[in-house]
Amino acid sequence: MTAGVGGAASTSATSTASGSGATSATVTQTGGNGGSGSSGANGGAGSSTGMTNGAKGSTIFGSLTLTQTVVGGNAGGSAGATAGAGGAGTSTLSLDEAESADQSLTITAASNATGGNGGSGLNGAIGAAASSSDTITGRQTVNAAATATGGNGGASGTSGSGRGGGRATATAAATGVTVAATATAVGGNGGTASGAGMTAGAGGVATASATGTGSGSGAMTVAITQTGGNGGSGSADASGGAGAASSVSSGVVGSTVSGTLNLDQTVVGGNGGSSSGGTAGKAGTATSALTADDNKSAVLNTMVIATGGNGGSGSSADSGAAGGIASATSAITGIETINDTTTATGGNGGSGADSGGAGAGASTSAQATGLLLTMTSTATGGNGGTGTGTGFAGGAGGVATSSASGTASGSGATTITANETGGNGGSGNSDANGGAGASSTLTNGALGTTELGTLNLNQTATGGSGGFSSGGLAGAGGSAVSSLTDNDTSNSNKSAVINAISTAAGGNGGSGSSGSAGAAGGAATASLTLTGANAARGTTAATGGSGATGATHGSGGAATATTVVTGRTKVTAMATAQSGIGGTTTGPASASATATGVAGTFTAQAGASLTTGSLIQQDSANATGVVKGTSVGTVEATISGASATFVTTGQSVALITAAPNSASTSAVLGANTAISTLFGAEPTFFAIAEVGGGESSLGTSSQTMTSTLNETVDLTQLATRGDLIVGLYNGASTGTGVTSINFTLTVDNVTEINQTFTSAASAVAYFSDNAMNLGSLAAAPFTANTLTMQAVLTVTTDSEGSGFYGGIIIGDPPKARLPARSLVDAMATFGPAAAGGDRQVSWTRPAPLLLAAASHGVIA
Questions:
Q1: Which of 24, 350, 377, 726 has the greatest number of CB atoms lying within 10 Å of its CB?
Q2: In DSSP terms, which residues pair with 276 in a beta bridge?
Q3: Which pTM was predicted?
């Protein structure tokens, strides 16, 4: 026996107006539902229903709105037999007023179709298909929208698998002066399944396309959204259904006459179905590719998006499924301005009762040719799913790759950007490990040319964060490497100005609980080699990932930034490195900025820091100067470990190691008797540092370089506060062209040392085993709990290869060991002042400048 079939439906609506006002016609047609079958009877089929031009109307220079909706009937279920099939829904709407006597100034038409759901039963039925089309031609403004949603598959009992979701197809076409065409298709969801060996239904496939033809110069939009259906869930050991893959190649097509054309294409993969006891459903992939060649529009805006589906989750000792891969590509050609955004996001891994699914990869590639370009290509890996239990882990983050390249024939500004971000690792619960954050490596991701214009190249690589763990190992942060090399002199079309930025950020470490240690942050490396045909500006920025909290705090990630810029005229080179915040340790931060040109500036800066509770909180180094020929700034900021090797090259040098190791301090004390004597036995050293500057090898005129060091010390971490001791040593000079040197040391906003030298020899003498006691750290002006110090060296030279470099050691010897000497006493023992009164003491109070990093636990 079979239950009754749903009844057919038929309807229409017509609206005719002779005026110029608003007129609308709306019609909805729904097929009847199939009847249910019991006691072994089959379920009845839902009624399929279709409509063609059921909504009609006309105006005379007015506004016409047509809305047509078709819904297929749902199928009847069956207890013990075959469920009924859902009814298909088909909506076709078309209107052509081009040759009509009655023409509207604005036509807005919508065609909607929904397939009926398949019936549930011993064997569920497939969801019904939905098809919608909307084709409109008008005199002026035309808005056409088509929407289709496939029916859901029916659920099956213990002896059958779930059925698939229905297919969805949507097509929109608009023709007029100013047009908008939008198509949206969503596949139906798969039906559920129950029982070992069974599989839930797969998601339905979706297909969408849209075309817009505009004869005007206004703004026009052609857009589609295509989403694959989700897989059904599986229970009682049944597997989850697969999410539908979704793929579009140039699904949007349009044209204007000297207008603005917007082409938007979004593709989404279906999510995998969950499973309890079986295999989690596979995620649907997403592929969005757009090729557009427009020789009419003044402005062409394109948006290409792909998002992978999420993997199905697993329970009852099942692992989560991996996310769906996402890929987005664009190849755009226009005659004037192009603004392109290409984005891909990998699907997330499903959570599991065992291991979490891996996050999916994502890739983007964007290419454009036009007069002026603004391009952004962004890829983001999916996050790993949560894992549960000893021996299991959260899923790893997905890897991302991105690139963007453009050719601009105009002399205005063109900007090309490539971004990639690794997915985060999944969490680990109940003694499972956290998943690793994905590393990110971006090499020459943003490239382009202009014809005597301004070219801006930007690329960023970001590592994924590690996953949390409760009782296991937390996931490490992913590393990040951004490397960009561009030589504009080799291009046939050369830019008047080229600006490039290379950025890297390491992922944060995963946190821990229930005895789990926090994980380390990922290292970051940013490099740039830029050669400009004219003016050039290059910047690198590297930021290490922060270490995470837990039973022990993870180390911060190291950071390295290197910038090399060459230009025919003015050049600017900047490099910034900041290591990640650590608990008791962090990686070194180092930066180098090299500039070659006839004018400009260079800046290198580095910093490191630790969390509250460490003796050394921060340290930083900064080196700046003007460009004369080839000029180099070198900086390094570290906390603990060996001090940096002393150098006597480079135009500006600033190196600081906070809380240096005993081998480094012993080397300084062993070579400097006075300093060693004043520090005595068992001192606490705050830092070893170097400052220096010199004329570039190609310099032919006066050049000034400035080196700056900063440090912040938490004095509450000292068991006993002693005196603040400063030692200056290893002064060295090169060449004969040093004309002026100024050295200042500011402590807690008080300038303790302010020395000016008119010769390198006097500065060398001052930085030769010169030990000074600046007073008790327990008395004014050092009574605050936080000690901030800044050392600044400014060197001015007028001949190539000339410079000065000196070392600094600073710390706190045991309180009771030596009587404190005043700074004036210390200066008196140094010897007679050099000719010209070079040595002076100033007690002015400049504005504070902090930046530092460190860790040195003195109090347990």
A1: 350
A2: 315
A3: 0.92
